[in-house]
């Protein structure tokens, strides 16, 4: 496996973008903005890890499973439950559509 330094790869990409698009300044700005974005996400992840360690270690004792056919009101029910103050822990990311679980025969 050939090992190429990060600096050499960045310099090569910068040269290709500059020659192809004729712009030598905007790739630098874009790279800096992406670096700032990654730094903010990293800081947020560290803060989440520190502040929400109790939630991450907790166990769900009585989960609620909502199963239904498409267009039968399951999404409405989920949004209604999410709108209640005491049920703020639910999120769409925790919902697995039934089409992902079952096979069509």
Return the string of H and E elements. Answer: HHHH
Query: Overall pLDDT, averaged?
Result: 76
Residues in helices, as a percent range: 40-55%
Q: Structural class from helices and strands? A: mainly alpha
Question: Number of DSSP strands?
Answer: 0
* Rg for CA atoms: 23 Å
Number of domains: 2
**Largest beta-sheet details:** none
Note poorly predicted spans: none
What is the subunit organization of this protein? single chain
Query: Separation of termini?
Result: 45 Å
Shape category: elongated
β-strand percent reads under 5%
Number of helices: 4
Helix and strand topology:
Layout: H1 6-21, H2 26-51, H3 53-57, H4 74-83
Characterise the protein shown here.
The chain has helices at residues 6-21, 26-51, 53-57, 74-83. The chain is mainly α. The protein is built from four helices and no strands. The chain is elongated and about 55 Å long. The chain has two domains: 6-56, no CATH class; 59-100, no CATH class. 54% of the residues lie in helices and 0% in strands.
């Amino acid at each position: 496996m050939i090992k190429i330094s990060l600096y050499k790869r960045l310099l090569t990409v910068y040269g290709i973008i500059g020659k192809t698009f004729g712009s030598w300044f905007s790739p630098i700005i874009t790279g800096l903005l992406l670096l700032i974005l990654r730094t903010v996400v990293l800081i947020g992840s560290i803060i989440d890890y520190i502040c929400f360690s109790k939630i991450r270690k907790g166990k769900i004792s009585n989960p609620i499973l909502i199963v239904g056919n498409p267009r039968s009101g399951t999404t409405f029910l989920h949004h209604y439950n999410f709108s209640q103050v005491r049920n703020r822990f639910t999120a769409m990311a925790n919902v697995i559509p039934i089409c992902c679980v079952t096979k069509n025969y």
